């Protein structure tokens, strides 16, 4: 699975849920949206090794 | 996870509301919550002309679109700050705002975008201005001053009744957190969803997204296909407000609804008279250069910025 987050790329070979992916990357689910093929995913959705996933940060401002 | 309304696969889970929704019903929920805030705080009159401050980011573009869909007469205002930093940040933000304005004008004829080009109009970009004023390391307060002045000036000069900004719940909660940490009672007395117009020359300002989480505005923008600038301003890195947001998001993770409760309970307490004794704003005088209201006699802070 190819995962992009803040200009970084991660690769995972196993199947996991969105929640497990975020936990692995130490990202709070409240701070991001997870998108696969343009579709928003809830935390319980399963991700397959062939998926391409984008984690979109939602925090803005300064 | 299934949509509570129709049972289709959900695209978002709003833990603070114990509510999962599909794309269609999240869209309806989001618009209804925006409309509810507009009604609750009596933000915009039925025939009012609204000027929406659009940065090119998710919140402001989503707000502009939502107001148009709700039937308001809403135009956009973009301030090109001239921030480059090797990333062409302002140029790309402006392109996003202009492209979106083009789409809005097609869908809602008559909608227009006004651009203020700071370097062209005043001779200096924000980084240039900050360097001359020896504020290179942290130009954010200076940038905020410039934006507030220009938004107010344009809203009044162009005859708009209301200036709307895309501040969301996370922004408001972080500001509140900072104001409480420093016991800024004057700011606490004035922080709210509506800042009324003032005879001295302050435009009416409203924040229709003040009860919507940043994650919700981002989801709305994504689901509506709004092409916004995802990158943050290069100067925002390390900003105190972002640190406050991180702290509050951790608290939200541990106890969903924390941010909403923090902000809503504050508004209730303020309406009940808390900080009332601090509510009297200092007297305002017209700036001798631009005519905008200022607490200082003579020139306002904005006009003094441009002095050599």
Provide the succession of SSEs of chain B: EEHEHEHEHHHEHHEEHHHEEH
**Oligomeric nature of the chains:** heterodimer
Give the helix/strand class of chain B: alpha/beta
Please report the total strand number of chain A as a whole number: 7
Q: What strand line-up does the widest sheet of chain B have?
A: 5-4-3-6-8-7
Query: How much helicity do the residues of chain B have?
Result: 40-55%
What order do the SSEs of chain A take from the amino end to the carboxyl end, as H and E?
EEEHEEEE
Any key phrases for this structure?
heterodimer, A: 62 residues, mainly beta, two-stranded antiparallel sheet, 42% strand, globular, B: 308 residues, alpha/beta, six-stranded mixed sheet, two-stranded antiparallel ribbon, 12 helices, 10 strands
Describe the structure.
The complex is a heterodimer of chains A (62) and B (308). Chain A is mainly beta. Chain A has one helix and seven strands, in the order E-E-E-H-E-E-E-E. In chain A, strands 2-1-7-4-5 form a five-stranded mixed sheet, with no helix packed on it. Chain A has a two-stranded antiparallel sheet with strand order 3-6. In chain A, a hairpin with a 2-residue loop joins strand 1 and strand 2 (8-11). Chain A is globular, with a radius of gyration of 11 Å. The mean pLDDT of chain A is 95. Chain B is of the alpha/beta class and 308 residues long. Chain B has helices at residues 23-40, 58-69, 89-107, 118-122, 126-132, 140-157, 169-181, 185-190, 214-223, 240-254, 258-271, 301-305; strands at residues 12-14, 19-21, 49-53, 73-80, 113-117, 162-164, 194-195, 204-206, 285-286, 293-294. Chain B has a six-stranded mixed sheet, sandwiched between helices. Chain B has a two-stranded antiparallel sheet with strand order 1-2. Chain B has a two-stranded antiparallel sheet with strand order 9-10. In chain B, strand 9 (285-286) and strand 10 form a beta hairpin. The longest helix of chain B is centred in the N-terminal third of the chain and has 19 residues, at 89-107. The termini of chain B are far apart. The model of chain B has no long low-confidence stretch (mean pLDDT 95). Chain A binds chain B through residues 28-33, 35, 39-45, 56-62, and chain B through 1, 10-13, 15, 20, 23, 57-59, 140, 170-171, 174, 213-215, 217-219, 222-223, 230, 232-233, 235-237, 239, 241-242, 245-246, 249-250, 252-253.
């Amino acid at each position: 699975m190819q995962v992009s987050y803040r200009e970084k790329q991660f690769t995972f070979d196993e199947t996991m849920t969105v929640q497990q992916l975020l936990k692995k990357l130490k990202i709070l689910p409240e701070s991001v949206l997870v998108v696969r093929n343009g579709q928003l995913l809830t935390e319980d959705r399963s991700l397959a090794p062939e998926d391409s996933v984008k984690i979109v940060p939602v925090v803005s401002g300064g | 996870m299934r949509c509570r309304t129709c049972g289709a696969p959900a695209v978002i889970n709003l833990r603070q509301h114990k509510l999962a929704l599909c794309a269609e019903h999240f869209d309806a929920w989001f618009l209804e919550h925006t409309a509810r805030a507009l009604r609750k705080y009596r933000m915009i009159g039925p025939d009012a002309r609204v000027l929406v401050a659009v940065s090119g980011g998710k919140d402001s573009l989503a707000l502009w679109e939502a107001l148009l869909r709700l039937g308001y007469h809403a135009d956009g205002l973009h301030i090109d700050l001239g921030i480059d930093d090797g990333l062409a940040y302002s140029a790309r933000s402006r392109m996003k705002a202009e492209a979106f304005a083009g789409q809005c004008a097609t869908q809602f004829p008559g909608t227009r975008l006004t651009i203020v080009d700071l370097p062209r109009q005043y001779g200096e970009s924000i980084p240039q201005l900050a360097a001359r004023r020896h504020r290179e390391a942290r130009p954010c307060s200076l940038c905020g001053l410039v934006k507030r002045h220009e938004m107010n000036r344009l809203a009044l000069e162009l005859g708009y009744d209301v200036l709307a900004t895309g501040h969301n719940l996370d922004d408001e909660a972080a500001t509140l957190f900072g104001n409480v940490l420093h016991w800024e009672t004057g700011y606490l007395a004035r922080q709210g969803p509506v800042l009324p117009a003032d005879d001295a020359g302050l435009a009416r300002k409203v924040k229709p997204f003040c009860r919507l989480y940043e994650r919700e505005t981002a989801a709305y923008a994504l689901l509506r296909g709004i092409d916004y600038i995802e990158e943050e301003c290069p100067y925002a890195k390390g900003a105190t407000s972002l640190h406050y947001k991180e702290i509050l998001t951790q608290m939200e993770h541990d106890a969903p609804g924390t941010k909403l409760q923090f902000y809503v309970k504050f508004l209730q307490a303020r309406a009940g008279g808390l900080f009332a004794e601090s509510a009297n704003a200092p007297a305002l005088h017209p700036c001798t250069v631009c005519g905008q209201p200022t607490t200082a006699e003579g020139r306002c802070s904005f006009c003094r910025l441009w002095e050599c």
